[in-house]
From TrEMBL:
Keywords: Monooxygenase, Oxidoreductase, Signal. It comes from Microbacterium allomyrinae. GO terms for molecular function: FAD binding; monooxygenase activity. The keyword Transcription does not apply. Residues 5-349 form the FAD-binding domain. The lineage of its organism: Bacteria, Bacillati, Actinomycetota, Actinomycetes, Micrococcales. Pfam families: FAD_binding_3. SUPFAM superfamilies: FAD/NAD(P)-binding domain. PANTHER family: MONOOXYGENASE, PUTATIVE (AFU_ORTHOLOGUE AFUA_6G14510)-RELATED. This is FAD-dependent monooxygenase. InterPro entries: FAD-bd (IPR002938), FAD-dep_Monooxygenase_BioMet (IPR050493), FAD/NAD-bd_sf (IPR036188).
């Protein structure tokens, strides 16, 4: 497909990655973002960059920069008992491009900075504090009304606007909405303790038999984050102090790194992030006419997969590849969806099934072994 004008809604990870890949292919790319600036458009604590994400980042010229400001680990994960003793170490799969790295941890602000700087360097225009107010498909373009009062006429509109996508309604006749896993995740930044040299997972059983899982991710030489998965009514939104006491109650009975954070660092945490765990796999095709979706807009995953950002970045790379490989837009967008659907569905299904297993453990599903198989599958070329 020849050089085209492309408008992307959403300057998150997927939108920025797609903008870079498309601009590298010679397209004229503009990104519209509802938040007023780079800092306010980053939501969350940190990102686990599995090998397939690093490979996708390499395709858009961002992998080395991420590794330079992150924490590259030689092991993918370690499982600890409630007292902090290592009971299993998982080396994790590798990709040829980064044979020594099992995962790279990075803060969201640093990742967004790397992606934004690269996007600007390859000629992407990013417009903050704006959104799309109306979409009118036409034969050879899309009329897009923007909140600044302008009307844009891109040849392709990309919805990279997340799990609550407003562009999704222009692709599907019926509503497509995410499902709640029944669990939410609490996250706080913590100093990187010496033992946090990979993704750590500690578990214990509560008095009522509930499986309580707490984990750690290294983000830099001196920084990590702790996450705590809890059964939660998503309509309840406690304040920071209530969340602090909630975390303290769940961390009771833990030794090891969880106990250290509880006793030495929890009181000092100035921000505690609470997010519901949702999942979604939208049916194909992921496009209609000159409108196409990517990232969480079509395949939101639960965080136990550590694949949400990776899949979104891969989407952008594949979209650019298929636009370059096909002479007509319809064939390119169909090929993009065909390449992505089963890969993304496998990850979504694993995450959802692992969460369901935590509520109702069955002998026919082992979340650890299934997770290993899923991660081995996604290191295959995308």
């Amino acid at each position: 497909m020849t050089q085209s004008s492309i408008l992307i809604l959403g300057a998150g990870i997927g939108g920025l990655a797609a903008s870079i890949a498309l601009a590298q292919s010679g397209h004229d790319v503009t990104v519209i973002e509802k938040h007023p600036g780079l800092r306010s458009s980053t939501v969350g604590v940190g990102i686990i960059q599995q090998p397939n994400q690093l490979r996708a980042l390499a395709a858009i010229g961002c992998a080395d920069a991420c590794i330079a400001v992150g924490y590259a680990a030689a092991y993918s994960a370690k499982h600890l008992d409630a007292d902090g003793a290592v009971v299993r170490a998982i080396p994790g799969p590798r990709v040829a491009e980064f044979p020594e790295i099992a995962m790279n941890g990075i803060t969201r602000p640093k990742l967004h900075r790397v992606l934004t700087e690269r996007a600007l360097a390859v000629g992407v225009s990013i417009e903050y504090d704006k959104t799309i107010t109306a979409v009118r498909p036409r034969r050879d373009h899309v009329e897009v009304d923007v909140s600044d009062g302008t009307t844009r006429t891109p040849e392709l509109l990309v919805g990279a606007d997340g799990v609550r996508s407003i562009i999704r309604a222009h692709v599907y006749d019926e509503p497509v909405e995410p499902a709640y896993s029944g669990k939410s995740v609490l996250r706080i930044n913590v100093p990187r303790l010496p033992e946090i040299d990979a993704i750590l997972r500690q578990e214990r059983l509560g008095d009522d038999g509930e499986r309580i899982g707490v984990g750690f991710v290294p983000l830099a030489d001196d920084l990590g984050y702790m996450y705590l998965n809890i059964v939660w009514d998503r309509s309840v939104r406690p304040d920071t102090e209530e969340l602090r006491e909630l975390m303290r109650s769940y961390l009771a009975g833990f030794g090891g790194p969880a106990g250290v954070v509880r006793d030495d660092y929890l009181d000092a945490a100035d921000e505690i992030v609470l997010r519901p765990e949702e999942y979604l796999i939208a049916p194909g095709p992921w496009h209609r006419g000159r409108i196409v979706l990517l990232g969480d807009a079509v395949h939101a995953v639960t965080p136990n997969t550590a694949q949400g950002a990776a899949l979104a970045i891969e989407d952008g790379v594949v979209l650019a590849e298929e636009l370059a490989a096909n002479d007509d837009l319809e064939s390119a967008l169909q090929a993009y969806g065909d390449r992505r659907y089963e890969r993304c569905k496998r990850v979504v299904d694993y995450g959802a099934n692992a969460r369901k297993w935590e509520f109702d453990p069955t002998p026919d599903f082992d979340p650890v072994e299934e997770g290993i198989r899923m991660r081995e599958a996604v290191v295959a070329p995308f």
